[in-house]
Amino acid sequence: MSYERYRAALADEPLPAALIDLDAVDRNLERLLAPVRAAGKTLRVASKSVRCVELLRYLLERGDVCAGIMAYTVTEAAHLVEHGFDDVLVAYPSAQPSDARLLAELNQGDAHVSIVVDSPEHLARLEAGAADIGGTIPLIVEVDMSWKPLGAHLGVRRSPLRTATQAADLADSVGDHPHLHFAGVMGYEAQIAGLQDANPFAPLLNPAKKLIRRRSRPSVVRTRREIGEALAARGLTYEVFNGGGTGSIHWSTQEDVLTEVTAGSGFLDSHLFDYYSDLSFDPAALFALQVVRVPGPGFVTCHGGGWVASGEPGLDKHPVPYLPPGLKLLGMEACGEVQTPLIVPKGLEIGIGDPVFFRHAKAGELAEHTNEYLFVRGDAVERRAPTYRGEGRCFLG
What we know:
About 30% of the residues lie in helices and about 25% in strands. By secondary structure, it is of the alpha/beta class. Strands 1, 10, 11, 12, 13, 14, 15, 16 and 17 form a 9-stranded mixed sheet that branches. It has an 8-stranded parallel barrel with strand order 2-3-4-5-6-7-8-9, surrounded by 6 helices.
């Protein structure tokens, strides 16, 4: 049983503790890579969902078609380059002069560190920073992939670029900046890849979410194809055309225009990824709390636990008790900063000192609460690895 296996692995460990089940990671890795391999593409690993250098290295070394990392800040990209990673795409723009100079410096060595842009202002600021250093920055033009039926905006608010013409115009204008280089395109379909359509915490919304995911797919495919055609018409070549995510990788790999897809959360299967009607992964990232109180019959209280995820507030952003099975949060308290009470089902014997294993809502954010991950294989801790926090790094704080 998984509970006894994890309990044995953490028997002598101080709690709270976070563990990564490498056996589950391996299974998830194979599920994610199978369609990528079949399509002859590569998979870029999203560091936002991992935030642990050793785990990133493990995924890239084990994944035969894994190539490159998608980072979330320029300073994080520099940290990854320091650790030996040489292909990093920063998936969020920056207008800071220090970031522009750092990007130019990083690209003067053997590393290739690109950054997304979506406006002429981004180009002007990056050009100024790169000119100070005398280097060149590779740019990825990001295009909005939201669905817009009848003028509505169904998706996340990312790039202001909506059409293939707008994307090609910005890509073309990169050539006017001697210290910038057009390297490719990113078009992330967040309203498909990041939208749960089988969420038990908001069941009435699931039919609408299923509709959005299904109906917006043709628009995404068409827009990405048109971008490729518009670039070709202007004689613009690209090294990277990135799209997809864990929630859409099974079909986005089929698009000829894409050179690569991205995934991150699927490797660890945080509990939000249980709520997709077309996905199936194994939980691989857990954290353990100790039971410190039995406040009454049918209840136990754990120490800590308030590791709530970012995004739209809701019960689905709370951690969920996972093992032993059957434990439930109290609606009036949920997960608290210093204690988390749980309802114990009849027949389950659990008491003071016993561990309870939880799953975080978002994969990468677990690393913000712990200094190290315990890499577990079987019923033993195989090795330990510092998270970004454990290395003393916080890239958006």
